[in-house]
Amino acid sequence: MSEFPEPGPRRPADELEPLGERFERLSREAQAHTFRAATTPTPPPPVALSRVRPAEDSSELPALSAEPRKARHHANAKVEKDERRFDTTALHFDTHGRLMSHADYIAHCEKYDYAWRSIKMGDRILDVGCGTDAPLMRAINFVQSQATKVMHRAGGCYVGVDLNKLKVTNINWAQLLGEVDMTSDDGYEEALYAIPGNWNEQMKAPADELRGYTLVVCLEVIEHMDAPDGKSLLKNMRDLLSDDGRIILSTPVYDGKGQARNHIHEYYIDELRELIKSVGLKVTKRMGTFTAEPQLKAWLKENRPDWLKLYLEAREFHSAGYMSGVLAPMVPDISRNNVWVLERDEQADTAP
Questions:
Q1: Which of 75, 57, 78, 76 is nearest to 66 (CA)?
Q2: CB 245: neighbour CB atoms within 10 A?
Q3: Position 209 in a domain
Q4: Using one digit for the tens of pLDDT, what is the confidence trace for 46-86?
Q5: Which domain holds residue 180?
């Protein structure tokens, strides 16, 4: 006996559907399916959220700060009044953007890498809005040569602050301070006295001996609060800087059409530039981090057709998300997100 079962009887040939008739039947079914899909009602357009909190000191803010920001959201999302003062979204270390080359998350990685590469020997680093996973601290600790630069014996340190609760770190050159509001006087003091030497044996150092931070990193934070709080944040970061310190700030560019649902106030480029100047800071460098492919290709066609040819060749392999970040630093005005490098402007006439 065979170990395989005997095949069942075949259908008689006169019972089989002719091949041509089967092809025509399948074609009709496919067309009917396409028609049903094409006539499916489209969801209603998104309804813009209106801002609720008034800008109490709007007279001191750029004029554009008073313009309500529209929120992008799914058509079936429940639209409610936005009562938030802050948004506490955090970029998680191992879950965002793992399976696709999304431009936004590629840019997140590059911003942290830029901040990481900007570290100098003996830097005292304040990471504002460090996130619950503190990716910048992890990146520094991952490479010994970078960690050496911020060790206490080199005169450096790392202090991460965030509105969210943070776990204690066992890295000896680092501190993580959770539930800190960096727009407030209390937040300013917490950050100031976290610097080694500014607080010794339960006593504050004399004012003339206090040291500031040489590098303040604030990535994707200022858009998660309203404009008056954004101004307070910039003021505090400026006051925490040493004379030769610098700030690396990144934030989306508002396009006048809509902002992310978890953002409270995105800034136009000129609006943020004016706000930076008003608190006694100056811009030393501004770079784009990613842009939309249609705008980028249009800019290249008009301004650098030689680059457009290279772009299209590289685009055969790389995704639009990846390529939009490669050239974005050179076209910040059409980028969806900018990195701003700031320093103190001692000549500025700032309001109290």
A1: 57
A2: 20
A3: yes
A4: 544 343 444 455 457 887 777 777 776 555 556 566 677 88
A5: 102-289+338-344
User: Are the C-beta atoms of residues 313 and 283 closer than 8 Å to each other?
Assistant: no
Residue that is written with structure tokens 């830097």 in the block: 123
Max distance between CA atoms of the chain, in angstroms, equals 103
CA atoms of 278 and 59, how far apart (whole Å) = 12
Task: Please report how many Cα atoms fall inside a 13 Å half-sphere around the Cα of residue 333, on the Cβ side.
Answer: 2
Q: 51 or 252, which is more confident?
A: 252
Question: Computed from CA positions of residues 326, 329, 331, 336, in that sequence, does the dihedral angle turn out positive or negative?
Answer: positive
- The CATH number for 209's domain is 3.40.50.150
- 179 Rama sector, left if φ>0, alpha if ψ -120 to 50, beta otherwise: left
Per DSSP, the three-state class of 253 is strand
Q: List pLDDT tens digits, range 150-183.
A: 998 888 999 999 999 999 999 999 999 999 999 9
DSSP β-bridge partners for residue 216: 126, 247
The secondary structure of residue 334, as a DSSP letter, is G
Q: What is the CA radius of gyration of the chain?
A: 27
What mean pLDDT do residues 321-345 have? 94
Residue 212 belongs to a domain = yes
> Could you tell me which of 120, 115, 318 has the C-alpha nearest to residue 217?
115
**Is the predicted pLDDT of residue 252 greater than 90, yes or no?**
yes
The two tokens of residue 194 are 């976290």
Higher pLDDT, 68 or 134: 134
Q: Alpha-carbon torsion 306, 308, 311, 313, what sign?
A: negative
Number of domains in the chain: 1
9 — alpha (psi -120 to 50), left (phi > 0) or beta? beta
Within a domain: residue 9?
no
